[in-house]
Amino acid sequence: MIYYSLLFWFFLMSFTKSKKILISSFLISALSLGLTYGHGYDWINYSQIYSDLKYENSDVPFEYGYYYAMKLFYYFSAPYSLFHFSITICIFYLIYTFCKKTLNPNLSFFVMFSFAGYFLFMEQMRQGLAISIVALSIFMVPTKQYVRFTVMILLATMFHFTAIFGFLYLVLTPKNQFLFKTKYLIASSLVIFSVMFIYFNPGIVSFIPALELKINLYKAQEQTLINSIFFLSSILYLILAAVVFLMKYHKPDNKESLMIDGAVCSALFMYQTKIAFLLQRVQYYAVPSLIYGTDRYFYRIGPISIFRIMYVVIILAIGLMPLRYEIYRNSLTSFLTITSDKYQIRDLIEKRCYDLRIADPENTVIKECMNN
Length: 372
Description:
- This protein is about 70% helix and about 0% strand.
- By secondary structure, the chain is mainly alpha-helical.
- Strands 1-2 form a two-stranded antiparallel ribbon.
- Helix 1 packs antiparallel against helix 6, helix 8 runs antiparallel to helix 9 and helix 11 runs parallel beside helix 15.
């Protein structure tokens, strides 16, 4: 399977600092996932929306940036597969650019792919594009380029509204330990409680119909909100936070120690958002700050150390999470290519809908499978 082959390759390469390896990782991932599609389920909605552009429907089903990117490709009569290819190349080029700016580029690439490779870069690609833009903005905070930082975040929200959480980098890239801990406690509490309040009172955001609809869709799966507290992946985030916290006792200097504090809180924030089903998509915005906070430490201690090995093994376990669910495993065993014809596309849609009906008989997300 393409995803797992890439994941294990990036895991092995995470111990090197070679820029050539980073370039090869970018090319391998971008081409292998760009020339193929149909992994996961969201692509069914995207391809249908793309096809329906011929009807000149005035409704915009999601953020304007992604929608008008679709319209541009459709205007030039490009097939959906070419649009998918272009978005994939863009995502991985931005991730490559982000990783190139770090001291441990191959480790950074592995961490980004482990957290977001399946769920964002292959499945929920709107948010994948948004987070790849947001990731680059983190380097603007320490240099106080706040205008450029704000522009980057706002640009990313044109592709997925959750990119607004990129402003958390103002908290997760600390400069003062006392102020940092205070700001983190206030910011994380406000985020969690505000979003959960909206979750239980969706009428508050009725002036944003798309957001209200999304919240109601999550409420239809409310049992997951309770069960997710016990997800193995949530526990792994706590273990990850503990391992990163222990790095503080491995003789870091003051700046490095402060950066590790930011990484610890990034892992804790991922745990906080993971245990509430509505907030699970928010967790990904803390991945760049986790990378940023541990980057200097891992550069200092070198490629082989007990903490680095524990760190990458935990990250690998997080990357293997799709193995836990049959519906995800099935979605990774078959796919389309940019040369697939309409009959192959139809066959795969029927297969995905069959798997989805077994896993989620009350499906309200993949519209084609509601009528299939």
